[in-house]
Amino acid sequence: MVTGMVRPSQGVARRPVERATDAWVQVLVGPAEGAANFVLRKFTLEPGGVIPLHRHPHVEHEQYVLSGRIRLTLGGSVQEVTAGDAVFIPAGVPHRYDNPGPETAEFLCVVPQTASYETEWLD
Q: What are residue 33's DSSP bridge partners?
């Protein structure tokens, strides 16, 4: 039985985001920590960083911007999101992240724990 956990994000390894420029992801809580239903990830987007246009056909995203500024392409619109903004991305909706700078942007992203996680790159 899992009793819960607390862990500093500074100690969690980060890896580059696939096909992105100056973007990193950390899995803060997931199956390895005993989470059966959701995965909590932290993304870091350096100034000038880009996560290209993509979509996840079967997985929705809930996000919360911690710091910085992100130009978010969501479906057919482009909008700026900043610290304190919450974002919902339904399954299948194309999205892209650009950090126009000059400061690093960070956001949390929660996705359901699934057997597979398909990403369709559109750029």
A: none
What predicted TM-score, i.e. pTM, was given to this entire model?
Answer: 0.94
What pLDDT, on a 0 to 100 scale, did the predictor assign at position 2?
63
What CATH number is given to the structural domain containing 34?
2.60.120.10
Domain that holds residue 41: 13-113
- Kindly state whether residue 70 falls inside one of the protein's structural domains: yes
Residue pair 100/69 in contact by the 8 Å Cβ criterion: yes
Rounded to a whole number of angstroms, the CA Rg of the chain reads: 14
> Can you read off the two tokens belonging to residue 28?
């803060």
What is the rounded distance in angstroms from the CA atom of residue 106 to the CA atom of residue 17?
Answer: 13
Residue 55: inside a domain: yes
